[in-house]
């Protein structure tokens, strides 16, 4: 049959390109090994209709086939991700749609709110099963390298608040406050008066509950609000894992709005994921396409150079930039391990499709950060064209305060 000859030729081509610890099992009992070594991953194709996904194995195609139940895969999730990436890299040309394409995404308050609800309102219980006890869903800071996740997340929050020198009584705005961990820490340890905004109803409800339980309702206000609707003046502004949802074209407006909310001597911390492609392209071989379709609808990652440029366009001066890519690779790897460990509990909270999406997304993100396909930068800035007195002369204050 035609498909048998085509598949056999494809398997032969892959074996000549690279030795993969992969076994392919078909619906008719046929079996193909892609190396002479014992396979770490077994890929099962239950029907001939799934072959087009396999014969053009972009990360988008393989991911779609898996989450839609067109194929099944057995093996450790890190091995699955490694094999998928090698298969894509060795068999596809890094051109056109499979290279780091740049998408054009239209943003509005309604569409952004819908995208946020899709990603974050799975259920709070779902996130609790793989995040740390404080439910911090952003890159941790492994200062010494031996911290557990919960400790590293607290260190990340302290690292942020120390960098922007949060003082007792400061009015702090946290854009995209998640489940409230940063504003709780800012009020409890640093004495700030905080406002946290989110578009996720689940995050809003739990963050308010946590604030009330901590007895901090007089110092922390949680709002279900779009950042574009925030008014007032704030001494300190944080945005952690949020500007990825803003849109490339909206970044100048985003930073200009932050500037309009900032006190003259105020400071801003923007902590977010960036593309490592100078043209703001997505991760290669269809990885970004998969994330857009199944994980973060309408998400866009800028290169750090665009971040710095649009901050200046928004009237902000950049004071400090730190790359935490390695820290996010480790964070995602821990999340992926937690997800695997709690798999049976997670399956009880969601359907098989969403379970599969998140399984490959978390492990795939760890791989992407590890391979420098995506990165994470913390950028401290303040109003431009102001006297240069906002921060100490050196960065020593950041580390002295954390000892």
SSE string, helix = H, strand = E? HEEEHHEHHHHEHEHEEHEHHEHHHEH
Unreliable spans are none
Shape: elongated
Beta-strand portion reads: 15-25%
Count of extended strands: 11
Structural class: alpha/beta
Helix content: 40-55%
Could you say how many structural domains there are in total? Answer: 2
The top level CATH class name of the largest domain: Alpha Beta
Supply the CATH architecture of the largest domain: 3-Layer(aba) Sandwich
For the termini, the CA-CA separation is 69 Å
Record keyword descriptors for this entry:
about 400 residues; alpha/beta; Nonspecific Lipid-transfer Protein, Chain A; Rossmann fold; 2 domains; seven-stranded mixed beta sheet; four-stranded mixed beta sheet
How does this model look, in words?
The protein is α/β, with parallel strands linked by helices. It folds into two domains: 91 residues, Nonspecific Lipid-transfer Protein, Chain A, CATH 3.30.1050; 292 residues, Vaccinia Virus protein VP39 (Rossmann fold, 3-Layer(aba) Sandwich), CATH 3.40.50.150. Helix content is 43%, strand content 18%. The chain contains 16 helices and eleven strands. The strands form two sheets. Strands 7-6-5-8-9-11-10 form a seven-stranded mixed beta sheet, sandwiched between helices. The longest helix is centred in the C-terminal third of the chain and has 19 residues. The protein is elongated, with a radius of gyration of 23 Å. The mean pLDDT is 91. Pfam families: CMAS, DUF7884. This is Cyclopropane-fatty-acyl-phospholipid synthase. Keywords: Lipid metabolism, Methyltransferase, S-adenosyl-L-methionine, Transferase. It comes from Herbaspirillum hiltneri N3. Belongs to the CFA/CMAS family.
């Amino acid at each position: 049959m035609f498909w048998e000859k085509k598949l056999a030729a494809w398997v032969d081509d892959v074996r000549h390109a690279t030795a993969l610890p992969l076994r392919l099992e078909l619906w008719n009992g046929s079996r193909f090994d892609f190396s002479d070594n014992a396979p770490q991953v077994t890929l099962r194709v239950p029907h001939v209709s799934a072959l087009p996904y396999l014969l053009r194995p972009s990360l988008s195609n393989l991911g779609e086939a898996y989450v839609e139940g067109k194929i099944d895969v057995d093996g450790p999730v890190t091995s699955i991700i490694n094999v998928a990436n090698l298969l894509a890299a060795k068999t596809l040309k890094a051109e056109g749609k499979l290279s780091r394409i740049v998408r054009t995404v239209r943003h509005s308050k309604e569409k952004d709110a819908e995208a946020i609800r899709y990603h974050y309102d799975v259920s709070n219980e779902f996130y609790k099963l793989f995040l740390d006890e404080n439910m911090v869903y952003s890159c941790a800071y492994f200062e010494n390298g031996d911290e557990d996740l919960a400790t590293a997340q607290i260190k990340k929050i302290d690292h942020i608040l120390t960098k922007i020198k949060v003082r007792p009584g400061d009015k702090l705005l946290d854009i995209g406050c998640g489940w409230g961990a940063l504003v709780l820490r800012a009020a409890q340890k640093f004495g700030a008066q905080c406002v946290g905004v989110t578009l996720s109803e689940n995050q809003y409800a739990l963050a308010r509950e946590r604030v009330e339980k901590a007895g901090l309702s007089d110092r922390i206000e949680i709002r279900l609000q779009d950042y574009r609707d925030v008014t007032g003046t704030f001494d300190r502004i944080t945005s952690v894992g949020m500007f990825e949802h803003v849109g490339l074209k909206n970044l100048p407006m985003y930073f200009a709005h932050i500037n309009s909310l900032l006190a003259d001597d105020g400071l801003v911390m923007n902590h977010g994921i960036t593309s490592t492609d100078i043209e703001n392209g997505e991760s290669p071989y269809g990885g970004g396409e998969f994330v857009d379709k199944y994980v973060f609808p309408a998400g866009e990652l800028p290169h750090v150079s665009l971040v710095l440029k649009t901050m200046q366009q928004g009237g902000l001066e950049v004071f400090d930039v730190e790359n935490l890519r390695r820290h996010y690779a480790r964070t995602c790897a821990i999340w992926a391990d937690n997800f695997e460990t709690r798999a049976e509990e997670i399956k009880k909270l969601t359907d098989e499709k969403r379970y599969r999406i998140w399984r490959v997304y978390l492990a795939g993100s760890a791989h992407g950060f590890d391979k420098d396909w995506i990165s994470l930068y913390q950028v401290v800035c303040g109003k431009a064209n102001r006297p240069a007195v906002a921060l100490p002369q050196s960065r020593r204050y950041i580390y002295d305060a954390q000892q």
